[in-house]
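Give me the fold.
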Amino acid sequence: MSDTSSKRRRSSTRTSGSPTIGDVARTAGVSTATVSRILNGVPNKASEETARRVQAAVDELRYRPVQAGRSLSKMRSAVIALLTPDNRNAFYASIADAVQRGISATGNAMTLCNTREDPVSQDAYIEEMRSHLVSGVVLLGAVRTPGLERLLKDGPPVVFVNRKCPVEGHSPFIGIDNYAAGHDVGRYFLERGYSDCAALHGPWSSSASRERFEGFRDAIAAAGVALAEDCVVECDLTIESGYRQSQRLFDQGRAPRAVFCGNDPIAYGLHRRCQELDFAVPEDIAIFGFDDNPLNEWLAPWLSTVHVPLEELGQQVSEVMSRLLDGGSDVPARTVLAHTLTIRSSA
C-alpha cells in the first residue's frame, strides 16, 4: 500500500466525535481485539510492527480508552487515592503535590480526600475510593477505624506516610524518625540552657505526635529536667488550637522559658498568644516547631523547627506504591528519611 493511499484510508476513519477503539482498529488495519490486547499490555499477542501501527493510530486520532470499562475488566483503575488529615496545612499540601507528581510519572492519576482527622470521614472516603476501584491508597495521617482494618485485610495496596499504621503489624511506612527528631530538639534545649520547658504536642492518637513528644521528653529527662504536668498540653494540629491551648501555659501567671511544639501551626498560634501577652520571642520564651512548613520561608522566617524533606518523601511514596502495584515482594517495611534542625531566631 502506498503512503498516499494509506493517508487517504486513515483520513477517512476520522470522526467528528471522540474516536473509538473501532476507529483505531480501522486506521491501523487490525481488529478491535488486537487493539484491546495491545493497549492492555497482553504479552505475545502481536508483533512489534503491529504494536507500532496501533500506537501510531492512537497518537494520530488522540484516542483515550474508556477507563470505566478497563477498570471493570481489571477490577482496578489507574487512580491512587491520597487521604490527608488537613488540606489547609501547607505541609500536607506540599506532600500531596510531591506525591501527585511522582504518581503521574508512573502513568497513574491521584485523587485527594480530606479526612479532617475524623474517623467517620476517613472510613467514608475509604469505602468510596474502594467503590471506584482505586489501585492503591496512600494514608497521610491515618487513624484506626473499622474501614481501615477492612482495607488492610482485603483492599488494594496501602502506604502510610508521616504516621505509622495504627493497626499493628502493617506496613509500609515512609517518613522520618519522629522520636529521634524530638530527642534532637530536647538536646538542643539543654545545650541552650533551657531547663524550664513546656510542650504543646499533637494528638496522642497520632504516632508521629506521640513519638515527637516522647523523644523530646526523654532527652531532657536524661539530663534531670522534668516536665511539670501543667506544662504538657495536647493540641489539635492547627493554629487555632495552638493559640487556644497555649493559654494553659500562662494560667499560673508565669511563662515557661522554652516550648516545644508538635508542629509549626501550633507554634504560630503560641507566637500570637505571646505577642498579645507582651512576651518577647526568644528573649522571654523560646519557641521550637516541627515540619518546617513551606509557609515559614514567607510568613514565619523566625521559627526554629525540624525540617522534613518533603520532595524526597513524595518521591519515595510514588516509588514504593509503584513497586506494590507491580506485585513487588521486596518493598521495605520502613523507609526512614533524614531530618535536620533548622535553627532560626525563635530559639
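Residues 310-325 form the longest helix (16 residues).
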